[in-house]
Amino acid sequence: MITFVTTFTLKGDDAESFEQLFKEHSEFMAAQPGFLGFRMLKSLTKPGSYVNVGLWADGDAHRAAVSTPEFTSHVRAMSPYVEVTADLYREIASHTPTAD
């Protein structure tokens, strides 16, 4: 499993439009082979800052999804609203609390 972490920073103050575009994008991504899930987080202290954490079965599945014309179209649609940085990660440690 790999993790794709993307940070989004609003260029202006139109969070509503960006969030709608991201929702449409996430529906597309959820239908891609090898997609395992995601969490989109909005900063509580930095207005206009978001982090998306996506889980993929492997790097090949992720590469296939981001190589589609639909993905490119979504990126173009969101680009007027946000600056983006992204990278692939692999887990080296984790902890899940257990119930008593």
Automatic annotation (TrEMBL):
A GO molecular function annotation here is: monooxygenase activity
Keywords on record: Monooxygenase, Oxidoreductase
Recorded hits in Pfam families, A to Z, give: ABM
Q: What class of enzyme is it?
A: oxidoreductase
Entry EC no(s): 1.14.-.-
What is the species listed in this Swiss-Prot or TrEMBL entry? Kitasatospora phosalacinea
The segment(s) forming the ABM domain are 2-92
Domain of life the protein comes from:
Bacteria
Q: Does the keyword Oxidoreductase apply?
A: yes
- What protein does this entry describe? Antibiotic biosynthesis monooxygenase family protein
